[in-house]
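User: structure tokens for Branched-chain amino acid ABC transporter permease, please.
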Amino acid sequence: MLLLQLLINGLVTGSALGIIAISFSLAYSTTRIFHVAHAGIYTLAGYVAYALEKSGAPDIVGLLAAMAICAVAGALIQSELYARLAQRRASHLAVLIASLGLLAVIQNFLASVFTPNILPFGSAWRGRTLSFGGVTLTEVQIATLVICLAVFPCSLWFTRRTVLGKQIRAVASNPFLAEITALRPQRTFVIVMAIASAMVAIPGALVAFDFGVQPYDGTTVLLTATIAVIAGGIGSLTGAFLMAMLISVLQNLSLLVISGEWSVGVTFLIFLVFMLFRPRGLFTRR
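Assistant: Done. Predicted tokens:
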């Protein structure tokens, strides 16, 4: 039963990590910016939901508000920071350093306002559990699994079937050609960053409902999601999501044989294996 419990827990965690991975993949494959501050947006979503929960708002309102506020924050980051750096022809290293600096600003701002301690939610459904087949999950975990598994196919449909999704793919494929064909890449970059930020707010709020909020949690989560993006293949949303699920399941199953503090090493082992034998990623097309 322990094996099954760890497997299901891995799927729950992996579904949330998968949405983080595909949101980061969408932003990176389109803008070519290693958006490290994405971890700060993830953390911000949890604090927005926490603040609204403390004011008496339902958790669904907190989730929707977190998505809206994070979308605005993502759009502002692209238009007021990355776009201005691009106008000044800043190097990729300079943009990366700027993103790291912004992450530090977000994390320390949240720590100064809410304290750096872990702050749990007081929602009643947070502690309620359901058991089936020897497996026990909280209602928050079930909601996380269901919502994130629903968001994944919706994101694929959006990028492949909608006009805006096709424009985003065109800009990601060839920004120069998109510029001369009046697709306005800079405008598309802002839209993509807003969408990616709204997407990462979903697991950001849901995970916070379960484990509480802490200003510096997002960095490790984004690092793991980035490994999933690289191993799955840059630009492949399916690859990023599936690799995130696989990594999370392996991390949880590794608890059967090693201590929890070493389970993160499984993630880096997977990364090293892919870098050695499949550096282009598992789902990358020629």
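User: Anything notable?

Assistant: The mean pLDDT is 89.
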